[in-house]
Design brief:
CATH topology of the largest domain: Rossmann fold
Number of helices: 11
CATH class of the largest domain: Alpha Beta
Number of strands: 14
Strand order of the largest sheet: 8-7-6-9-12-14-13
Helix content: 25-40%
Bound molecules: S-adenosylmethionine
Mean pLDDT: 91
Largest sheet: 7 strands, mixed
Strand content: 15-25%
Shape: globular
Order of helices and strands: EHEHHEEHEHHEHEHEEEEHEHHEE
């Protein structure tokens, strides 16, 4: 029987370990000097108000990017990494679960993650990340395929575009025969699992490598009164901790290959070489005969100019493990004019691949 992880210890931002005494900065300080300190690799500690930190970051941005932002993509990317690197030297004091600065936003994660009495330091970008995550967590996010809101836990992937959810929803509606046991591989906030339960799948295992994702799912299961006979959570690197054979494996994997320059540390977005071969080989061993895979993918890697390889097409061409049952495509919804990032996104489409085990 599959063994379920109950530890539930989340990954949280690591406080800074200071190698030297930080410089202090306040509202009245010389911001140009403070920007230089950051760029020289010195720690700078905000001592009075949250807004002082925001102001200093905005000055740093001006200094790093100059006036012509986004003019040249490669240059912009280098500037962006430089900005991230320098901004990590800007520190905020945290004590007993609170930000030690006036007029700071309330960030409930701090109380849960850093209740210690002794002062610690988080970088300003870490604090901003915690703040934005807290807002999503307390307000929740509404998906067009679910009546309840989901409340993603800190560090959990949750989709902000819905095309793949709508594709999966229409696929689920077409299923006539009963699905007994399904696995939601890389479940993130669990949205695909909740969709499956709504469509009568008898039992779902939501699995992810990221411990925070499982905490997120368990909390939402409690909110929705879903008990563990219907849905279980398991922390596993692909199928490492999973034993039972399944009728269906659903996977919305990372869509982009890790770049050779090391960009792409985020496991939710980027996959490493060999990832899909491992997935298909392990999936083959964890499916009942005639069991199916539903893989949600897109041509994002091609439209973003990464490469022309497509992991599902390669799998079908090179190995004799699965046969294609169906491929449904949907043009990716455009963002509004205001938020649209790049024009070539117009060529993006989302795919649902249904494969059957040979
Ligand atoms: C694009 S997100 C999909 C999340 C969710 N299923 C959805 O459709 O919105 C990919 C998920 O795969 C997980 N993941 C990445 N590598 C993994 C691995 N080796 N084993 C298990 N999960 C993994 C990530 O943590 C992330 O939650």
């Amino acid at each position: 029987m599959t063994e379920f992880n109950k530890a539930g210890i989340p990954d949280i931002p690591e406080p800074a370990v200071l190698k030297h005494k930080p410089k202090s900065v306040e509202k009245k300080s010389d911001m140009d000097q403070a920007v230089l300190w950051l760029m020289e690799g010195k720690y700078v500690l905000v001592e009075d108000e949250y807004s002082t930190g925001l102001r200093l970051l905005s000055e740093l941005k001006k200094k790093v990017f100059g006036k012509q932002m986004k003019e040249n993509f490669k240059k912009y990317r280098d500037q962006r990494s430089a900005y991230h690197f320098f901004s990590n030297n800007l520190l905020t004091p945290i004590k007993a679960g609170e930000v030690g600065l006036d007029k700071s936003p309330e960030i409930g994660w701090l109380e849960r993650f850093y209740p210690e009495k002794a002062e610690i330091y988080l970088s300003f970008p870490q604090l901003q990340g915690l703040n934005s995550s807290w807002q999503w967590y307390i307000n929740g996010i509404k998906y067009p395929v679910l009546s309840e809101k989901l409340h993603p836990y800190y560090g959990t992937y949750f989709p902000t575009r819905f095309d793949h959810l709508l594709l999966f929803e229409s696929w689920l509606k077409q299923q006539n025969s009963k699905i007994n046991l399904a696995i939601d591989m890389g479940a993130g906030c669990g949205i695909l699992s909740f969709q499956m339960l709504n469509h009568g799948v008898q039992a779902v295992i939501a699995s992810d490598i990221n411990p925070n994702a499982l905490l997120s799912i368990r909390e939402d299961m409690d909110r929705m009164n879903i008990d563990s006979s219907k849905m279980k959570t398991i922390q596993s690197d692909l199928f490492q901790k999973i034993n039972d054979p399944h009728d269906l494996i659903v996977f919305n994997p990372p869509w982009l290959p890790v770049k050779s320059n090391g960009e792409g540390l985020d496991d939710a977005i980027y996959y490493r070489p060999g990832f899909f071969d491992r997935f298909f080989s392990e999936a083959y061993d964890h499916l009942k005969p005639e069991g199916r895979i539903v893989l949600l993918f897109s041509n994002l890697a091609q439209v973003e100019g990464y490469h022309d390889e497509h992991p599902v097409i390669s799998e079908l061409a090179l190995n004799n493990r699965f046969k294609k049952v169906d491929l449904i495509k949907r043009k990716a919804a455009q963002k509004s004019k205001k938020t649209k990032r790049r024009d070539h996104r117009k060529k993006e489409y989302i795919e649902l691949w249904e494969l059957r085990r040979h």
